Amino acid sequence: MRFCQAFMLELWRHLGPDMDVPAGDIGVGGREVGYMFGMYKKLTREFTGTFTGKGLEFGGSLVRPEATGFGGLYFVNQMLETKGIDIKGKTVAISGFGNVAWGAATKATQLGAKVITISGPDGYIYDPNGISGKKIDYMLELRASGNDIVAPYADEFPGSTFVPGKRPWEVKADIALPCATQNELNGEDAQHLIDNKVTCVGEISNMGCTPEAIDLFIENKIMYAPGKAVNAGGVATSGLEMSQNAMHLSWSAAEVDEKLHAIMHGIHAQCVKYGTEPDGYINYVKGANIAGFMKVAHAMMGQGII
Amino acid sequence: MRFCQAFMLELWRHLGPDMDVPAGDIGVGGREVGYMFGMYKKLTREFTGTFTGKGLEFGGSLVRPEATGFGGLYFVNQMLETKGIDIKGKTVAISGFGNVAWGAATKATQLGAKVITISGPDGYIYDPNGISGKKIDYMLELRASGNDIVAPYADEFPGSTFVPGKRPWEVKADIALPCATQNELNGEDAQHLIDNKVTCVGEISNMGCTPEAIDLFIENKIMYAPGKAVNAGGVATSGLEMSQNAMHLSWSAAEVDEKLHAIMHGIHAQCVKYGTEPDGYINYVKGANIAGFMKVAHAMMGQGII
Amino acid sequence: MRFCQAFMLELWRHLGPDMDVPAGDIGVGGREVGYMFGMYKKLTREFTGTFTGKGLEFGGSLVRPEATGFGGLYFVNQMLETKGIDIKGKTVAISGFGNVAWGAATKATQLGAKVITISGPDGYIYDPNGISGKKIDYMLELRASGNDIVAPYADEFPGSTFVPGKRPWEVKADIALPCATQNELNGEDAQHLIDNKVTCVGEISNMGCTPEAIDLFIENKIMYAPGKAVNAGGVATSGLEMSQNAMHLSWSAAEVDEKLHAIMHGIHAQCVKYGTEPDGYINYVKGANIAGFMKVAHAMMGQGII
Amino acid sequence: MRFCQAFMLELWRHLGPDMDVPAGDIGVGGREVGYMFGMYKKLTREFTGTFTGKGLEFGGSLVRPEATGFGGLYFVNQMLETKGIDIKGKTVAISGFGNVAWGAATKATQLGAKVITISGPDGYIYDPNGISGKKIDYMLELRASGNDIVAPYADEFPGSTFVPGKRPWEVKADIALPCATQNELNGEDAQHLIDNKVTCVGEISNMGCTPEAIDLFIENKIMYAPGKAVNAGGVATSGLEMSQNAMHLSWSAAEVDEKLHAIMHGIHAQCVKYGTEPDGYINYVKGANIAGFMKVAHAMMGQGII
Amino acid sequence: MRFCQAFMLELWRHLGPDMDVPAGDIGVGGREVGYMFGMYKKLTREFTGTFTGKGLEFGGSLVRPEATGFGGLYFVNQMLETKGIDIKGKTVAISGFGNVAWGAATKATQLGAKVITISGPDGYIYDPNGISGKKIDYMLELRASGNDIVAPYADEFPGSTFVPGKRPWEVKADIALPCATQNELNGEDAQHLIDNKVTCVGEISNMGCTPEAIDLFIENKIMYAPGKAVNAGGVATSGLEMSQNAMHLSWSAAEVDEKLHAIMHGIHAQCVKYGTEPDGYINYVKGANIAGFMKVAHAMMGQGII
Amino acid sequence: MRFCQAFMLELWRHLGPDMDVPAGDIGVGGREVGYMFGMYKKLTREFTGTFTGKGLEFGGSLVRPEATGFGGLYFVNQMLETKGIDIKGKTVAISGFGNVAWGAATKATQLGAKVITISGPDGYIYDPNGISGKKIDYMLELRASGNDIVAPYADEFPGSTFVPGKRPWEVKADIALPCATQNELNGEDAQHLIDNKVTCVGEISNMGCTPEAIDLFIENKIMYAPGKAVNAGGVATSGLEMSQNAMHLSWSAAEVDEKLHAIMHGIHAQCVKYGTEPDGYINYVKGANIAGFMKVAHAMMGQGII
Q: What one GO molecular function would you report for this record (chains A, B, C, D, E, F) (predicted)?
């Protein structure tokens, strides 16, 4: 708390909703954002959307914690729909067991898919019956316990297996969603997935796939969504938090979710617009890069040489 | 007008949408708010939601006058639903015949209940046929006449009775709604209502019930909603007026009403969360107090020691 | 660009969302607004809705280009509905072939009417089969070509005729919509339309009708909407752009269109309120003037003598 | 007071020590400046030198009332010195009997000259014994009486004469100082002075000499100082009041007087620099005009085209 | 330091050179002022004269520590001169041995008087040879030692006596200057001084004399200067520190001393103006009270009713 | 001008009299400062001392151009006085022939010394009769001619010699003053001066002496003043310009010169305080370094850890 306050005492003049908007990241969660916001508010006497990820009691947004996972699934669903594939009944391999995995598993289940893996530093769980409902709640309990292991899941839910020291990418699944950490899916893992005829890979974790993995997916014409597109739901919901603050309103969870859905839909459409290749394959890496560049370039040129 | 302007000339630096937001109260209505807003705008050169209850031509919100009554009924309806009771066909005793009573009677009728009393300083009207439609319009006319009496109602509408010098709480009704002034429902009145098997009491006026009355309701496990919860619709709609100002928009009456409904629903849910007792009785006094305290406490703690 | 920047260097302190909000007009389009906004943002360090008609990449609103035409048709449709007339199947004579004509023709077609003329400086096109779909796209191409002529349309679409050097008001049509420039419909034109039993005239261009024309319409009890009411959709959508900026959000085209519709509906209702004459004829000129005056007058009086 | 306050309520944002600095003039004296300053301070919360001529208790400067007259004599003395003439023993004809005449007579006496006339609307006093000491005090009493006449002076001081309905310029004097009002010295008066071999004319009143008078002085090579130079002492001392405010200090009368002297010396030097003609005659009209123009022109050019 | 910083974090918005200017007092010296100024500067980014008594390296003024004592002697000297008495050779009884006593003894010696006592909590020193030069330095050493006693002086300087447990007012002296603490000179002490034919008493400490003492001095027509006049040198020099800050300059010690002298002279003149009684006795208590009241009253009235 | 304006358009928010104050340097003179000030004033609407070296017509200070040279001589004179040496009659070798050399030669002559050299890129002039009066004016003419040579001086003034391609340090002189550019006096030059028994060396140019030269001077106990002390007059006079701006006043040349003298005196005293070595030799390098460090260190510590 003292650190957050001292940090703000130096930085406050350089932050603002039209200037620079800090966000949480590894080691900076709602607690730290709250402390920084409190000090910022004391110094500026303004109650604005300069910070996002705030507590619900003072301007935070519903659905913010699940937003990255929810958004990821909306994007993946859109990828499949574009190719005429229904997500219903598809098997999904997820890595991680934290907030992102929680959101991804919850929304995947809502959309009718079956989540068959989660993972921790100790290995992964394979549950062919699907990880949903109370099982997801149990996953959150494991996370909150602070033990940082997923192994107990197998004891709790018969029919599931704990595979120690491995990543879930060796499991056959239609959809693979890295939701844990960077470089968690390398070239070898990619080859496993390709060999197992994976349909779609969504890199929901930040830089979850190594360059080798990405190259392999694209070479093999696998549907692959890079993090900069598929995990934009978190930042997007920070934007929605800013909107709610600007409006002096709080939206219901359903409203936030609906707007998040629309935003992911729009991002997907931009990727398709700029990433579709002559043979119909959608190179989402290329699409996301070009779409982002074009938006900034048009805005800069539109505002003149200043 | 001169007083409002001089007042603002002293106070303007200390008001603002993120600082302090004055509101009307007894003797300070739309006219005075307009004068204060005009002077504030002249001095600050800002057109913000610092004042609420403004005229519709310069930033005021539709439904603001009826908001307290509408919100009260949304809350009462929620109370009944929680216990599986349908408000349709229920009789409602209302006191008062001003803006609050107007909103309450209008919304009660819309929801299918039958309003059977209103009151003034001179006594109360008992109308077993129900006070709705043109009768409500007539009530507003009585109010606007400046005579401050309700007796003429009985002459206008055959089948209704004027009971001079009494309060309406002696009438048998399923729902009792004090909508007039403070301390208008004392211990004796409460006992009458209880004896007449009242189902639900909503204290829509500010501090309308005496402490004795409140104690009696709770002892007898009557559904009783304290003013701090059931009459929050007025302040809530001031908040919606601020939202509209922040958005540079005016919502339709339906939109305001819908948002007001959602807000009252949320307040009710908080009361239930914190006020439900082991035997299932919902102590709304306790619930509202704890919910309010928790929100402020969490916000303060979340923002650190500053 | 240099001019726009120098202009802002002088003017920036006197602009702001609560102060003065410049807008494009003849010769000042999205390009110039972008340059001015860029310089304004550099100087003020604020990203606000001070300018409207911005590029979509930096705060502009969808539907802004079509807004005047769309709004005009919503108004005209409301006029007809008020008199129990269905716009479906009605023939529409439109002048012009730019943004306004584009919006008007598109929305007219959507509402089920048949657009039978457009015009340019070289004359007008009469197309009894209706101008819709690809024909509208072709019209935009003609516009974008920079040749400023409509004659090629007749070559492109068999069944249509080019009438050189004339205005479209000699054609028999149920609805006449000047969408080009000022004074483009004079007394003689008005008489033609009246003789041809025109039902409704909407002056979507700024001051498109001469005073003589307007007098003739009113004398003959023709439904006539003056520009200050029927072409308010453009400015209204600038307001919606400001709202989106204030909310840090972008609405979908459907949302903007819906809100535009509601605004035009409200303007029409005000005209009817103040312009309906004893014989039932709605004098929209009178209605618009009085409604505008009343709004400003009430706001001024409501805010006191300051 | 109410007018001054209302005036400031409109104007306060546009005043400031680096922006615009109002000063008293006919009908706006210390009383009005005090009222305006009080309101300005209330609104801006700044205690700056935006107003000059303030009361001594709240930022006013000593010597401010006498400054115009003092400055005028410093200038005249400098004119004489430049030509090797000693002011000591010279006779001085002064018009007027207010603040300016007071300052002029006081300083003339201090410098060793003999003041032989003052005047009012009723005529002039000729006192060959010199108007100094108690006689000057008496003149101020006449002024303060509100009767606006100088005639009683002749009764009070034997040896002096009252000449009704005439101006003092018919008296033979070495130095003539118009200190009353505009156009108080016309061509005929100038001819009288020239015939009487006047040495030096200082137009201390604003535009006291008619164009004909000025032309005659210059043609006859009389030392003539235009008001824009010789009466700059008032505005100069307003500048010194601003300096004292900026320094949070009050200077003694001697300090103000010394600085005033230095400023008048500098202005005189500029006039000599730009107004000396080939024959040695100093055309102060030309000198003052060119010096003023050069200062502004150099400052503008030095700051670039902005 | 932490306390000073936290204090400023709360208070900074309410301080400023035109608003409120904190100053040191008992327990708040240069060290604390420095800490507060540092934090204030960090928060406001302004280097202004909001704090006085700052370190010399960052805006402090020379002579500030000695200012109260110096000013006191200038005032006392003026009192004597007014009655035609030369301070040279007069004996002076001083109490205390801190900053104020230091300044008083130093300036008294400079003016030619002989200081014969100083005092501490342990008693007083009587030195008939005069306390000056190295003896004053030694006094400062005693003070800085932290022992809070003056007794060692008698050992150090032969010819001087230490009188334990007593105040110096029993010594015969021409001038008595309380320079230590409040209520240090009571009625009994005053009677001693009067019996010993004291000429002048200057209450340089804050409220050093009891009401009984003051009444006795006035009854006996002793020249008595109350603290609000005679010890104004400290606050006056804070004002000079503000002036130096405003000017971005540091004055030499001689310049500060000269200005301090002029200020004390002016205060004395005001006391004489308002406090001189018909018999010629100058009641400085009355004079200081009336002068202060008149200044504030004139300033308030001059600025109008606001 | 365009560059200066564009530069200010980026930088203006980060400049201010309490923040950062730009100054001229090589290639940035009064012209550029004027352009920058003009743009800064346009943008900030403040007329403050943010820029120094401004034109005299808009806030510049008299003596600013000569200030470095004047200050240098005041310092050198102080050095000599400290050792009991009178500058009168001493010979002075100066390098350069620009503003700094001008100020140095002028003040040296005023103080009674005899300047015997000046120099340019083409060599140096040796004039044993002394360079003063009209000769200094001629030097300025040479400078203003743009030819950047001093050779013509020898033609103009018989008795002087032009030594091509050499520096003046080979001439025997009591005082050597590098006034041209960096590294203009190296070890070899220093040895020449030492061999010729130079008394005092003042490095008025920025870093005019090489490290070897400085070491030699100190080893040989020559009085040597480093640039950071001896050429501080330029920056000091910029500070005086800021003071004049803050006071809304312009000082006379004599006042500026006097204050400059006092400042240089103070800097010299600080060097002596911290640089005097046990044997009495004053190491000005050490003294200036320690004095500067101590001032900053005390100010930082005095303001606390912030």
A: glutamate dehydrogenase (NADP+) activity
pLDDT over 70 percentage in chain A:
100
pTM of the model: 0.88
Q: Who among F17, F298, F304 is closest to E1 (CB)?
A: F304
Torsion of CA B206, B211, B212, B216, to 10 degrees: 80
Of B299, B101, B73, B260, give the one whose Cα is nearest residue B184. Answer: B101
- Contacts E–F by Cβ distance under 8 A: 52
Token code pair at residue E296: 């504030």
- D and A: touch, per 3+ CB pairs < 8 A? no
CB contact under 8 A, C299 and B248: no
Task: Tell me the chain A residues in contact with residue B295 when contact means C-beta distances shorter than 8 Å.
Answer: 57
CA pair distance E204, E217, nearest whole angstrom: 15
Indicate if the pLDDT at residue A234 is higher than 80: yes
Rg from Cα positions in chain F = 20
User: What tokens does E156 get?
Assistant: 């150090």
Q: Does B26 have pLDDT greater than 80?
A: no
- What are E126's strand-pairing partners? E117, E161
Residue B174 DSSP class:
S
Question: B302: how many CB neighbours lie within 10 A of its CB?
Answer: 20
Nearest Cα to C237, choosing from C100, C68, C77?
C68
CB of B82 within 8 A of CB of B106?
A: no
Look at B18 and A48 and tell me if their CB atoms are within 8 Å: yes
Fold of C1-60: Rossmann fold (3.40.50)
Rounded to whole angstroms, the Cα distance separating C238 from C263 reads: 12
Higher pLDDT pick, F306 / C150: C150
Mean pLDDT of all residues in C202-222: 97
User: Which chains have 3+ CB pairs within 8 A of E?
Assistant: A, D, F
Q: Kindly provide the residue ranges of all beta strands, DSSP E only, lying in C62-140, ordered along the sequence.
A: 91-94, 114-120, 123-126
Q: Where are the domains of chain D?
A: 1-60, 66-305
Of all residues in chain E, the one with the smallest CA distance to F49 is E248
Residue of chain C whose alpha carbon sits nearest to that of A244? C247
CA-wise closest residue to C9 among C51, C59, C33, C43: C43
Q: What fold characterizes domain C66-305?
A: Rossmann fold (3.40.50)
Option in C38, C47, C248 nearest A304 (CB): C38
Subunits touching F (CB < 8 Å, at least 3 pairs)? Answer: C, D, E
pLDDT, mean over chain C: 95
**C25 pLDDT more than 80:** no
E chain contacts of residue D48, beta-carbon cutoff 8 Å = 18
Minimal C-alpha gap between D213 and chain B (Å): 51
C-alpha to C-alpha distance for D177 and D104, rounded to whole angstroms: 8
Smallest Cα distance from A38 to chain E, Å: 14
Q: Does position C200 have pLDDT exceeding 90, yes or no?
A: yes
Q: Token digits for F246?
A: 């803050």
- F41 vs D: CB within 8 A: yes
Q: F-chain residues within 8 Å CB-CB of E42?
A: 306
Interface C:B, ≥3 CB–CB pairs < 8 Å: yes
Say what the ipTM of the complex is.
0.85
**Bridge partner list, F92:** F115, F175
Confidence at D47, pLDDT banded by 50, 70, 90: confident
Chain F, nearest residue to E38 by Cα:
F303
